[in-house]
Amino acid sequence: MSVLSPSVLPMSKAAPKPRPAFRCSECGWEAVKWVGRCGECQAWGSVAEVAAAPVGRTPATPVSTKAVPIGEVSVEESTYRSSGVPELDRVLGGGLVPGAVILLAGEPGVGKSTLLLEVAAQTARYQRRALYVSGEESASQVRLRADRTGAVQPELYLAAETDLGAVLTHIEDAKPALLVVDSVQTIGAAGVDGVPGGVSQVKEVAAALVRTAKTRNITTVLIGHVTKDGTIAGPRVLEHLVDVVLHFEGDRNSRFRMVRAMKNRFGPVDEVGCFDLSSDGITAVTDPTGLFVERHQQPVSGTCVAVTMEGRRPMLAEVQALVTPSALDRPRRTTSGLDGSRVAMVLAVLQRHCGYGLAVRDIFASTVGGARLSEPASDLAVAVALASATTGDPTPPGVVAMGEIGLAGELRRVRDLPQRLAEAARLGFSVAVVPAEPGERSRLPRERRVDGMRVFELSDVRSTLEFLRLTTPVRESHLRKEDPGF
C-alpha cells in the first residue's frame, strides 16, 4: 500500500474571498482602489471602502411563470390608460401603462407635486383608486393643496410615510391602480446602511417599489430630486430601473412649465408637454406659441421671430436684442433664454463676414416669455435681431427666420422644415427666410409658396441681411452715448 507524500495530496479549493471595493457615497461609482476624487461626479472625499459580497454559484430555483412563445403573451393588461391630463398623455405616448414605473424629476418649486396630485385626482375621478404617499409633507398640508386645486376625490387615498415597510403595507391595504411617491429620496428602508437619499437607500427603495409595481400591475410614479446642475440626484441605476424618465422644467419667473421625456420604454422620447402653473393648480396648454411672441403696435428694431422644435411640436419664439455703446474695456455679453456660446459665435460671424462693428459694444439678447432656444435652428433669428438692433432699422413685419449659421457665414438646413413653415403660416406670418438647398447656393433669393406664405431661400447670412435691408451703415446718432465725455 503506497503512501502519498504531502506534496501530491489533493488540495481542497478554497472559497473565493470577497474583494474589497470602494464606492462613492454621492453617485455610487465604484473603483478597485481608493481615490480622493470620484471619477463620475467629481466629488472630493466621497469614496469609501465597502465590503463586496462573496462570489459564489447561484442554484436554480423554481420559476414564477412558465416561458411561452412571445406571440402568446397577452397585452390586454398593459394597454394605455389616460391619466386625465392630455399633455402628460402626449409625452407618455398615449397614457399610463399598468405596471409601469415613472420617474419625474425637477427643481424645487417647479410644480411636480401639484401635477401628480392632479393626475391622482383624475385617476380617482374615474373610479380607479389612487394612493398618494408623501414623505416631504404632512397629510394635512397635502389636503390644503388638494382643496385649493380641486383634487379632493373619494377614491384618492393619502398617506404620509417615510418608511419603506409602512409604504408597502399601505399598498397592500389600499390596492391602488396608481401609486405616487413624493419623493423617492425621502423614503428609507430598515436594515440598509445609510440615510434616506443615499445611494444604498435609493437603490433598495426603488428596487422594492419596482418589484411591487410589476407583480401587482400598479402604475407607479416616483418624484425625484435634482442636483444643482440639473441632473437627477442619486445613483444612475435609478434611471435604469424605471421605465420612463421625465424632466419637469420651468422658470421661476414664469408660469409656463414643460415636461420632457428623457427615457420611455412605451413611447417616443422626443415629445414635450406644456402646462400653466397658477395658484389654482396646473392646467394643460395645448397651443403655447402665443406665450413667446410679443405683439408690437408698431415695428420695433432688434426683434425677430424664430421657429423652434420642442420634441415634435413646432413653437414660435421671439428673439430680442439690444446693442449699445460700451464704456468698459471688455464689453458685456448678456443672454437670457439663449445659448451664450452660440450667440458669441453669431456675433463673430456678423463681425467678420458682414462688417458689423460689435467688438466695442454691449450686447444684450433674450427671448420673450421665458422660452429657451438651444437648437442651432435659431441662429438666423438671433443674427437678424442683432443686425436690426445695430442698424436701428426694424425687421419687416410678418417675417420669421430659421437656419443654422456656419463659421464661414453660410446657412445650413434644419430638420422638420415643413412643420415649422406650416406652424408659422397658421399663426399668420406672411414671409419666411430659410436656408437654400446645398446644390442651389446663390446670393439671389429663390421664392416659393407654402400654405399661402412666401418662403425665400438664401445661402448665407450676408445675403439674408441684404434681402431684409438690414445692412445700411450704422447711424452714429442711434448708438452714440448721451454723455459728452464718451
SSE inventory with pairings:
Elements (H helix, E strand, L loop, with lengths): L20 E4 L5 E2 L15 E4 L35 H7 L8 E6 L5 H14 L4 E5 L4 H11 L6 E5 L3 H11 L3 E5 L16 H18 L2 E6 L12 H5 L2 E7 L5 E9 L7 E7 L2 E4 L18 E8 L2 E13 L7 E4 L3 H14 L7 E7 L11 H13 L7 E3 L2 E2 L5 E2 L4 H10 L4 E5 L10 E5 L2 E6 L2 H7 L8 H4 L7
Parallel strand pairs: 4-8, 4-9, 5-6, 5-7, 7-8, 15-16, 17-20, 20-22
Antiparallel strand pairs: 1-2, 1-3, 9-10, 10-11, 11-12, 13-14, 14-16, 18-19, 21-22
Cα-atom Rg, whole angstroms?
A: 29 Å
Q: List unreliable stretches of 5+ residues.
A: 473-486
Number of helices: 11
Instruction: Please state the overall shape, judged from the principal axes of the Cα atoms.
Output: elongated
Number of strands: 22
Looking at this structure, what is the CATH superfamily of the largest domain?
A: P-loop containing nucleotide triphosphate hydrolases
Distance between the termini: 113 Å
Secondary structure category: alpha/beta
Known CATH architecture of the largest domain: 3-Layer(aba) Sandwich
CATH class (first level) name of the largest domain: Alpha Beta
Provide the β-strand percentage band.
15-25%
| Domain count | 2
- Report strand order across the widest sheet: 6-5-7-8-4-9-10-11-12
Write the CATH fold name of the largest domain: Rossmann fold
Summed over residues and divided by their number, the pLDDT gives a mean of 85
Main β-sheet, in a few words?
A: 9 strands, mixed
Question: In percent, how helical is the residue content?
Answer: 10-25%
